[in-house]
Design brief:
Elements: E1 2-7, E2 47-50, H1 53-63, E3 71-75, H2 80-88, E4 92-96, H3 106-115, E5 120-126, H4 136-144, E6 148-153, E7 173-176, E8 188-191, H5 208-222, H6 235-244, E9 251-256, H7 275-283, H8 286-304, E10 310-312, E11 325-330, H9 333-343, E12 352-354, H10 359-367, E13 368-372, H11 379-394
Parallel strand pairs: 3-4, 3-5, 5-6, 6-7
Antiparallel strand pairs: 1-9, 1-12, 2-8, 7-8, 10-11, 11-13
Helix pairs in contact: 1-2, 8-11, 9-11
């Protein structure tokens, strides 16, 4: 397959000054009662634990019979770890287009299927950034064509005890990544409403050494340095210095590969998540998690509402949604993305992506930033990040009027 890949090595980006994922526990408030309206009623038989969602996804691909003779339909906007397990199985991958809100383009999907001659075994459908999509029509489409729908809830608060409303109800298999929502070292889940589908899915437990190592990693992340109160005042001078010097923007390149990326470790394929990670997920307050994430997301929405050169992808959160990150579309990745990275603002973007004809995916690859809104962020961290973003996107670009 042909991949577009951004190589940041010439840029020498510093370590982010704020954690992208939750790095400290949030103690539950006695004034808030945990809501159970959307909790699962299934037993542990319906779940299998993996160290990451990508390996849970690989197990799902195997269970639906994906192999070198079969095809996976995957969304054109994707993290490479969504494709890695299929590549490890030698399967063929076809990418289907998405609309601007990242919902599947059903008309384009029909056209794509009409051109495929090999048997299509599975379709991967993703709920992006915690915004739950309605996949009921897509499920019917898959059932009519005997295609297994795999529901990707890796951006959704979906655990053994809680599932965001509308998530995890359409797929033959459901995968999620609890470690993205809780301060633990790992965690991926594979779920099936029909528990018998998981009879052949087996994992090996972590060793005692791995358990202690995972706890050590969590403790180290909780001690991350935080921006000081006076750091906001230094942003302008740092931007002046960066804009006055020649910029190094990294290398955007095209590569061909049929093997998984370096993010896929063959030795971790059948490894279960840490017991300590499962303990953290099981004993954390879901209500506090959701409430704080929503507050931080709304902070981003307010802070970017009047800022030029950017637009929130989802400015309105659905009721009870637990957002994963705040997706922001920026007009000029060069230089704004690079300035933000050099300031130490924590940003993810999916800038390594398989090539497709989808204009949305091609645009979002470099223009859509993933900004943290997790529950462990302090008010000071939010103020510094939003100030850095505001000042960066307003800063004059040399030669642009």
């Amino acid at each position: 397959m042909k991949f577009f890949r951004f190589d940041p090595s010439p840029c020498a980006y510093p370590k982010p000054r704020v954690s992208l994922l939750p790095n400290a526990p949030v103690l539950p408030s006695p004034l808030r009662r945990r809501s159970r309206a959307s909790e699962h009623r299934q037993t542990a038989r319906h779940f299998r634990h993996f160290t990451r969602g990508r390996y849970a996804l690989g197990e799902a691909y195997q269970l639906v019979g994906l192999d070198p003779r079969g095809v996976l339909l995957a969304p054109a906007y994707h993290c490479v770890t969504m494709l890695d397990p299929a590549l490890a199985l030698g399967a063929r991958i076809h990418l289907y287009p998405l609309k601007a809100d990242l919902s599947p383009d059903q008309v384009a999907l029909d056209e794509l299927l009409s051109r495929i001659r090999e048997p299509v075994k599975a379709l991967l459908a993703t709920h992006y950034f915690g915004i739950v999509q309605d996949f009921s029509r897509l499920r019917e489409w898959c059932e009519d064509r005997q295609i297994a729908l795999i529901e990707d809830c890796s951006h959704v608060l979906f655990t053994e005890n809680y599932g965001a409303a509308g998530s995890g109800i359409h797929g033959r298999f459901v995968v999620s990544s609890p470690y993205k929502f809780f301060p633990c070292d790992d965690g991926g889940l594979l779920y099936a409403s029909d528990a018998h589908l998981l009879d052949t899915a087996h994992t090996r437990p972590a060793t005692l050494v791995e358990e202690f190592r995972g706890i050590k990693h969590v403790m180290e992340r909780s001690r991350d340095t935080r921006p000081a109160a006076g750091d906001i005042a230094l942003i302008d001078s740092r931007l002046d210095l960066m804009s006055a010097n020649p910029a190094v923007f990294g290398n955007d390149e095209i590569i061909e590969r049929s093997a998984p990326s370096s993010l896929f470790a063959g030795g971790a394929v059948a490894k279960a998540s840490l017991r300590s990670s499962r303990f953290v997920v099981a004993h954390s307050s879901v209500d506090e998690n959701i409430q704080r994430r929503r507050e931080n997301y709304q902070h981003w929405v307010r802070a970017t509402a009047g800022v030029p050169n950017c637009q929130a992808l989802f400015p309105v959160l659905p009721a009870d949604c637990a957002p994963y990150m705040f997706p922001l579309h920026i007009d000029r990745p060069d230089p704004h993305f690079h300035w933000l990275k050099h300031l130490g603002v924590p940003i993810w973007r999916w800038d390594e992506m398989a090539d497709s004809s989808c204009g949305i995916a091609r645009d979002y690859r470099l223009h859509l930033l993933h900004l943290p809104c997790h529950q462990a962020l302090t008010n000071g961290q939010m103020d510094w990040m939003t100030a850095a973003l505001d000042k960066t996107l307003r800063h004059a670009i040399k030669g642009v009027h």
